[in-house]
Amino acid sequence: MALTDHLREVRARLFRSALVLVAAFIAALFFYDQLLNVVAAPYRDAVSTLQGENSELVANGISAGLMLQLKLCGVAAIVVSAPYWLYQIWAFIVPGLHAHEKKWSRVVAAIAGPLFFAGVALGYYILPKGLSVLIAFVPDDVQNLVDFGAYFSFVTRMLLIFGVAMEIPFFVILLNLAGIVSGKALGRYRPWIVIGTFVFAAVATPSTDPFSMLMLAIPLLILFIIAEIVARLVDRSRGRGQNSTDQWSDDEASPI
């Protein structure tokens, strides 16, 4: 295709994606109360588990309610319409790929999406526990007024962190398939991967309690172990065992 044809295709796909996004946004406006309850539920659950804590969600400012509605419905529209606009991106790129690249792009789409949403679901599940720990730091004689807009941004960032974190081991497998990382190298640096996973979980989780950290770190470690097993199987099928620079010699012991 000529460059102008590519530009016309991009314009057409962007226009269709924008129409679907606007339609999803309008539909989200009719379900605003339900969306608001879904977002506020972790906070209410956290407050209900605490005794004597005076904490409330508030909207500060005349336009705060309108901005909150636009932001919440906008995020919901992006999430709901994601399958369509992601397909438009994929449909534009895939004609230029080779046959084996098309196959792997389907594998990436089939695995990366469910992993991301599994991470988001896990983050939503442990969010009340993390919020309860943070709210507990407020003194008993002090009323804690939390701006709903700031709270929504906090929830969005945390869920995004959990969703992206679940993708990391999958991309490790992709690096192995590309020949960049070997299974032997993953085994050699496994102790550092374990330490790095717990450090990442401690920084990424919304609270300082060990429960939230473990709920992120343990699934990540399991996925990393699966990634290492898959990488070793791929290396063996490709015959890297004899020629890989990461191969342990017969008298060299693994650090694990």
TrEMBL record:
Chain ranges passing through the membrane: 12-32, 66-87, 107-127, 154-177, 189-207, 213-234
Membrane topology, as annotated: Multi-pass membrane protein
Gene Ontology cellular-component annotations: TAT protein transport complex
Compartments in which it is found: Cell membrane; Membrane
Chief location category: membrane
This protein's record includes keyword Transport: yes
Keywords noted in UniProt: Cell membrane, Membrane, Protein transport, Translocation, Transmembrane, Transmembrane helix, Transport
Example of a GO biological process term: intracellular protein transmembrane transport
InterPro entries: TatC
Stated family: Belongs to the TatC family.
SUBUNIT field: The Tat system comprises two distinct complexes: a TatABC complex, containing multiple copies of TatA, TatB and TatC subunits, and a separate TatA complex, containing only TatA subunits. Substrates initially bind to the TatABC complex, which probably triggers association of the separate TatA complex to form the active translocon.
HAMAP family: TatC
Function comment: Part of the twin-arginine translocation (Tat) system that transports large folded proteins containing a characteristic twin-arginine motif in their signal peptide across membranes. Together with TatB, TatC is part of a receptor directly interacting with Tat signal peptides.
Descriptive protein name: Sec-independent protein translocase protein TatC
Natural source organism: Nocardioides islandensis
Lineage: Bacteria, Bacillati, Actinomycetota, Actinomycetes, Propionibacteriales
